[in-house]
Amino acid sequence: MAMTNGLRSCASKLMNSSKPILSKQASREFHSSGMKMGGHGHDEPFYLHAKHMYNLDRMKYQKTTMSLAVLTAFSIGVGVPIFAVVFQQRKTASG
Question: CA angle at residue 42 from 39 to 51, to 5 degrees?
Fold first, then answer.
């Protein structure tokens, strides 16, 4: 009997203490923190995101750079499949 009264007492204390927590109104809002550092310290005419991000006409050594980029992309596109085929054939032949 004493145990039952103790459990009831404990349960009622827990229920009474949790009412303010349950009845508290929640607010749903969008929140964002401010900028950590400045944001306007870049060189304005030469550094704008997206719209003028890749100004190829202002690039130094444009012909050399673009030729090297295209050659690299082409070499990777041809070399990786050839390496994959050779690797698979070597793996199959050794088993």
Answer: 95
| Cα(25)–Cα(85) distance, integer angstroms | 64
Termini Cα distance of the chain: 77
Global pTM reads 0.42
Task: Write the single-letter amino acid at 61.
Answer: Y
Angle 48-54-60 from CA coordinates, rounded to 5°: 110
If one compares 86 and 47, the residue with the highest pLDDT of the two is 86
pLDDT tens column, 22-33: 556 777 787 777
pLDDT the model gives residue 78 = 97
One-letter amino acid of 84: A
Rg (CA), the chain: 34
